[in-house]
Design goal:
CATH architecture: Orthogonal Bundle
CATH class: Mainly Alpha
Distance between the termini: 45 Å
Number of domains: 1
Helix content: over 70%
Strand content: under 5%
Mean pLDDT: 88
Order of helices and strands: HHHHHHHHHHH
Length: 231
């Protein structure tokens, strides 16, 4: 118990002293996860919306695959990406292994099914009478689709937050693709794992507290969006 108390105390001292190493790691984590989430949003939201509003042969199979990939362990994604990006892999010549770009790609692959699946669910659960109403008012197909898309915006934003939260807190992809290189690819989760294994509990606790605070902020924003939608 004393170890935990001391670790938490030292953690807050590091945080409020604005320790450069702590905030460098935090900034890198935000940069990687935000970029991966942005790309996943650009791809996943339109893809999920398209799947959601259309009925086609094999749609159930697509949904099953998305829901399966939704809970894919991060180490599996890390192993898959490592096999692609390593020197003997098909994309080894690009030199992406143990780089920020490689980590961004890995996190993008990890969260794309989440953003897409939640976008499909949001589209299917929204009131489709909006499209009928827009059509009867003389809207063309593009106007009907854009109106319905706008109606789903709160649910889409929730999907984006879920994707960011998953990316920000994962460790498997970051460790296997980034390599946990100090000053280069070390982020919050890999630093926590390293510092704890080395007995450096203060920095580990500090980063853990920041990780929890980020999760808290994400959940508060998620709750506010839900309340706004209901209102």
């Amino acid at each position: 118990m004393e170890l935990i108390t001391t670790g938490i105390k030292e953690a807050f001292e590091l945080i409020f002293s604005f320790d450069k190493s702590v905030y460098e790691i935090v900034g890198r984590s935000v940069q990687i996860s935000f970029t991966a989430t942005l790309i996943a949003t650009i791809v996943g939201i339109p893809l999920g919306f398209t799947i959601g509003i259309n009925n086609f042969k094999g749609k159930n199979i697509v949904l099953i695959m998305l829901n399966t990939l939704y809970s894919l362990p991060t180490v599996i994604v890390g192993l898959f990406m490592y096999s692609l990006l390593s020197r003997i892999g098909p994309f080894g010549s690009f030199g992406l292994l143990f780089t920020l770009k490689g980590m961004i790609i890995g996190q993008f692959i990890l969260i794309l099914p989440i953003v897409t699946a939640l976008s499909v669910s949001a589209t299917q659960n929204s009131d489709k009478r909006i499209m009928i109403t827009a059509t009867t008012l003389g809207a063309n197909r593009w106007q009907v689709i854009s109106t319905f898309f706008w109606e789903c915006r709160y649910a889409f934003f929730s999907a984006i937050l879920a994707g960011f939260g998953r990316a920000f807190g994962e460790v498997g992809v970051s460790m296997m693709i980034g390599g946990n290189i100090a000053g280069s690819t070390r982020n919050i989760t890999t630093a926590i794992a390293l510092q704890t294994s080395m007995g450096e509990f203060a920095l580990g606790f500090a980063l853990g507290v920041i990780l929890l605070l980020m999760a808290l902020v994400i959940n508060i924003v998620f709750l506010v969006i839900q309340k706004t939608k209901v209102a």
